[in-house]
Amino acid sequence: MALGFLKRGKKEDDASDAKPAAAEAPADDSDPEEPKEPPRKFNKLVVGGVVGMVIAIGGAIFGAQLFVAEELKRETQAWQIRLSIVADGRTAAVDAWIDSNFKSIRDLAQNAALQIYMSELAAGGAKEEESEAEPSTESPTELSEDAEKPEGEQAEEDDSLEEEDTEASGGYLRNLLITTADRTGFKAPESVGEVNANVERAGIAGLGLVDKTGAPIVSTPDMPPMTGKIRAAVAKALDGEPAIIDVFLAASGEPTMGFVLPVFGIQQDQGARGIGAVVGVRILDDDLWTQLVQPGDLLKTAETYLVREVKGKIQYLSRLADGTKPLKRSLALGSPNLVDVAGIKTPGGFQTEMLDYLGRPVLAVSRSLSGAPWVLMRTVTRKEALSATENRLNVILGVFIGLIVVITLTILFVWKKGASARANEALHTAQVLLERFQNMSKFMNVVTNNQPTEIVAVDINTIYTFANEPAGRGAGIPQEDMMGKTMAAVMGPIKAQAFADINKRVITNFEREQNVQEFGDPDITDAEDEDCFQVIKSDHIPLHGDRDYPPGCLMVLDDITELARERRRSEQRMNELIDTLVSVVDRRDPFSANHSSRVSEVACAIAREMGLEELSVRTVDVAGRLMNFGKIFIPPEVLTKTENLTDEERIMVQHAYLTTVDLIEGVTFEGPVLETVRQMGETWDGKGPLGLKEEEIIMTARVLAIANTFVGMVSPRAYRGAMPFRKASDILMDECGTKFDRAPVSALINFLENRGGMRRWAHFREDPNEQSAAE
């Protein structure tokens, strides 16, 4: 700048010195030619930079648009899956409704009394035809005896008998049809506001029988007359095929449809022509329309409806969202861009750029029904389905373009200004921040990658936003490839759903949660199939959302499968040891054999019926099997004594569990097994050996005491027989509040009465001596 200032000052001095000389020069009338400036040369580097920048800007905009299009396509495919799931479910529901109606008709067609009546009717018609074609074979004597009666009397007698049989059978069948119609819905709706008058109401729904010629036999009062549609369906059914009378408007103006099934004789081949048919006609009401409603559907414009093609038109069979009643709207099959046309022509397809019956752009899937010539349509307006996504993508596109413009202007500004101090300072600051960020990222990667556990972060949509190297190794793919994928795509749908449910709670409540979950079958021991079972301990930590990232969840996953397997092995060894100890006691007293295992079984049933945690169930299981171990110190002659025990002997037997406590006191158990056995002799009123009462007694001890008493009462002993279950239950209820806690007693009685406990434990009452003799 100083050099520039000096040069500018020198030019000004030269100009001032030249002014006087110019003043002294003679004047010249002619204007001298002004010197021309030389043309500027193009800077190829600058031109190349500008062209490159324009190309880069165009490529960036094109890439942003391509990204938006791909995201929109992906969201559209996601909607195809959602709509297809709903359409498949509603299609199955409608088919099930059609099958249920056919089942009601089939129950009538297979009714034995109805088949016999129809067979007799068919046989009667055949006999009449034979009697008209063949001469009489009666003997002269029989003819003379019949001739002795007046011709009128003989005919009246035959007609009266025939009418009585017909009226009896017809009355039974009519009552059967009326009862079935009332139960299955094949009846007209109840009249509202009608005045009783001697005017017969037109039939609109009901059940009826026709013979092999299609002539009506008997029907319910509101059965409609035989129309052409009904006759065509009956003719098809008589040939042995089920038939549907497609939807039509009844005389009352309500949508109606029918079902027809053939009736075969009891000994008749099912492939032969039917001897008659059962016709059922019903009003289509909420029983069908509710099958089209998706439970829990929160979409405002989503709609599921039924359509069919009739004479070059699309007819809407169900109620529509705009209030149109069934069969009240039809559109031409050639309607341009109508989504229902594509649905009928290509059932099972997915449409994204077509219009519904109201002219709204929609997304739609279609499904054909197996039980009827209908097509089910599931639609949702494109605005509701994709507007939020399109807005978001447009915002992203705008942000991308804005960033591109800002970056371009910034580059031009920096390029023009050169090495200004402010630009250098900003650049230096950005470099420092970037370096710090990179160092922090490296540090975090070093910390997380050197952890033995898998550490990942996902948003509420289960999409990965972070993963360490152990997580990538566990998934079998590089950790970078996990970014942007869903948990279902990486770890499978079962695990993903289990973790997604926990993450949703954690993000919603913003509270940390820990969990241990098992996947697969824990009983698989084949080394090649070890991956089929996995136990994962997970720690879920909520993460705050910010401007760039939505709220998410940090998951720390620890595979503890081997620990779980080892724990199961330890439990198995413990159970084997316990069974061995219990077998020592069982061999000394045949009447007490299996007593410990039965007490354990009953105690576990009571604990589960009360809803106790699994640790308590395992505690009463182990304590029940160990409680009689102290009986090894009781002489066998006392255990097998056939007469009543003395007071001293009874106390010895009753307090054997305290000896068990002394024997197992040095053993470590997972739950409070020792205290459960120690307190099992305590009573609710506090008169037990330790003086504990009510809630002072742990729950597992209360459960075990009731199970032990119950098994002792219902099992035979050397000195008495087995007690009935109900008598044992009455005794336990009588002692509630004094000796026992009422809650476990109620749980035991409920299991006996309502859970099949009496049947399940009936073998408790068998005499071991009789069983041994039988064997």
Report on this model:
It is flat, with a radius of gyration of 46 Å. Mean pLDDT is 80; it is low at 1-35, 127-149 and 195-200. Among the domains are: 448-559, PAS domain (Beta-Lactamase), CATH 3.30.450.20; 578-774, Hypothetical protein af1432 (Orthogonal Bundle). The protein contains 26 helices and 16 strands. It starts with a helix and ends with a helix. It has 775 residues and is an alpha+beta fold. A six-stranded antiparallel sheet has the order 8-7-6-11-10-9.
Discrete helix count = 26
Uncertain spans, ≥5 residues at pLDDT below 50?
A: 1-35, 127-149, 195-200
Distance between the termini: 120 Å
Give the CA-based shape: flat
Q: What percentage of the residues does DSSP assign to strands (E)?
A: 5-15%
The assigned CATH architecture of the domain at 578-774 is Orthogonal Bundle
Q: What is the fold-level CATH name, i.e. the topology of the domain at 578-774?
A: Hypothetical protein af1432
Q: What is the rounded Rg?
A: 46 Å
**Strand runs, count:** 16
Spatial arrangement of strands, main beta sheet:
8-7-6-11-10-9
- Average pLDDT level: 80
Give the class-level CATH name of the domain at 578-774: Mainly Alpha
Q: What is the CATH homology-level superfamily of the domain at 578-774? A: Hypothetical protein af1432
Tell me about the largest β-sheet.
Answer: 6 strands, antiparallel
Q: SS-based structural class? A: alpha+beta
The residue fraction in helices comes out at 40-55%
